[in-house]
């Protein structure tokens, strides 16, 4: 299992956020801004993808549940973005991730994208993903070991 302090909001120089045990940071690149010189709106979902990839690595789920994790994966079903304040080129984004709800075949994650230097909240993303059985491509209930692993994650 990976060290769960890596990527944590409690690293020196990073702002912790109540209710979140995990965060990761990255900088806004020039290619991500639009003609208005702010991050283009679709990039926020890419930021969520970067953050959730780091989140899954941080959890250690691939090692924690073994083959149960290899036969299915989560596919995005619904995403909602609340844009509060734009990021600009050169900003450092601190992306906080947590699981909000675990359903029978799905889970909902919450992302809070903050300015790493000021702590200002720039965007909130709610994303529901469905657990898909890879060989068939059909939704499938979460296996008991996967559910137990997810329920045991730190909550901040």
Q: Give the class from helix and strand content and strand pairing.
A: alpha+beta
Mean pLDDT level: 90
Main beta-sheet strand count, sense and barrel state: 6 strands, antiparallel
For the CA atoms, what is the radius of gyration?
A: 16 Å
So how many helices? 4
Q: How helical, in percent, are the residues?
A: 10-25%
Q: Name the helix and strand elements from N-terminus to C-terminus, one letter apiece.
A: EHHHEEEEEH
Proportion of residues in extended strands = 25-35%
Poorly predicted tracts of residues: 1-6, 8-12
Termini distance?
18 Å
Task: Provide a concise account of the structure shown.
By secondary structure, the chain is an alpha+beta fold.
Structure description:
The protein has 156 residues and is α+β, with helices and mostly antiparallel strands. 22% of the residues lie in helices and 35% in strands. Strands 1, 2, 3, 4, 5 and 6 form a 6-stranded antiparallel beta sheet that branches. A hairpin with a 4-residue loop joins strand 5 and strand 6. The protein is globular. The two termini are 18 Å apart. The model is unreliable at 1-6 and 8-12 (pLDDT under 50).
């Amino acid at each position: 299992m990976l060290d769960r302090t890596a990527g944590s909001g409690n690293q020196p120089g990073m702002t912790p956020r109540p209710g979140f045990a995990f965060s990761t940071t990255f900088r806004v690149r020039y290619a991500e801004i639009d003609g208005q010189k702010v991050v283009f709106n679709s990039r926020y979902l890419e930021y969520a993808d970067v953050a959730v990839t780091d989140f899954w690595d941080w959890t250690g789920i691939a090692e924690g549940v073994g083959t149960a994790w290899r036969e299915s994966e989560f596919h995005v079903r619904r995403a909602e973005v609340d844009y509060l304040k734009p990021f600009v080129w050169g900003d450092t984004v601190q992306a906080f991730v947590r699981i909000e709800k675990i359903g029978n075949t799905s889970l909902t994650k919450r992302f809070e994208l903050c300015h790493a230097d000021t702590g200002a909240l720039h965007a909130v993303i709610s994303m529901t993903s469905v657990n898909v059985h890879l060989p068939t491509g059909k939704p499938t209930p979460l296996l008991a070991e996967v559910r137990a692993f997810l329920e045991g994650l730190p909550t901040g």
